Amino acid sequence: MTAPGRFFCADAARIRGDSITGTAPYGSVCVLIEYRGSWPANGFDGLDLEPDTKALVFSAAQAVKARILLVRRHGRGSREEPPSWAVLRFEGLGAHRQQWGTWSRDEDLAQIAEALRAPVVLGCPPVVLVCTHGRHDTCCAVRGRPVCRALSERWPDLVWECTHVGGDRFAANVVIVPDGVYYGDLDALSAVTAVQEHLAGLIHAEHLRGYTNLYPPQQAAVTAVLQRFGPAGRHAYTVATASRASEDIWQIRVDGRPPHPAALDVEVHAFRTPLRQLTCHGPSMSRAVAYEVTSIRAH
């Protein structure tokens, strides 16, 4: 799948056996901007947009800690309708909100700032994002594009290519919003299975990086519960409490909705990995934080 003699971070991560658990970036709001041209390596930040509008969108997104992603349909075929933008917000137990619009001029994107203050639409179908941002990391394109092709053939109205979502070494990465669910280490076959199960209301521990409304140790706890007791819906389990027993030990209380276990105490050990090259284009060596669940006990 990849050329010999070159370093590919996703290949290296698989050889090392890097864990994907607890690696979803935290955040509950996502901004999508359809941009059909070439994506800069730094995504939205690198776009040559009207300065005042760009600053307005950026500051509005910062105010609610929203992530801005550029998106496009797979294949980049010519399209007559104007490009889209969207604000997607995760709220509570399934009250996910979306607001969509279109833009023809840079100034039209100012609508995003207003939508970030009060997106009101409920009941829209989820959006499936596949990171294919090759200018940011080679593995995202090499592994992401075949996955996006397979998903787009199955769900053409739901699936978009997107810019960097984090975790290059876990490519192919798929994010389902506004559900806020990250999947990684996917290929075309496993991606179709994961998305199909997700849309049917079941999330499996395999390939799950985490839920974006939870912090990494909490993500690890919920993933371990799914692995122990089987796949479940997005809101089948909630984190009731989380506390640090020591510098590297977390105690997480996970509550389940019937018919799932009602209350579970999960112990999570956080530790730093050895120095590694974690991205294709970043030659510097870094340590990552990994999580290991050491016990799950009924409360």
Notable features of this structure?
299 residues, alpha+beta, Glutaredoxin, four-stranded antiparallel β-sheet, 6 helices, 14 strands
Determine the fraction of residues in helical runs and give it as a percent range.
10-25%
**H/E series:** HEHEEEHEEHEEEHEHEEEE
Main pleated-sheet profile: 10 strands, mixed
Number of helices: 6
Low-confidence stretches: none
* Relevant CATH superfamily: Glutaredoxin
From the spread of the alpha carbons, the general shape counts as globular
Please state the second-level CATH architecture. 3-Layer(aba) Sandwich
SS strand fraction: 25-35%
Q: Whole-number average pLDDT?
A: 93
**How are strands sequenced across the largest beta sheet?**
5-4-3-1-2-7-6-8-9-10
Tell me how many strands there are: 14
Number of domains: 1
At the first level of CATH, the class is Alpha Beta
- The assigned structural class equals alpha+beta
The name of the CATH topology is Glutaredoxin
Distance between the termini: 46 Å
Gyration radius, to the nearest Å? 19 Å
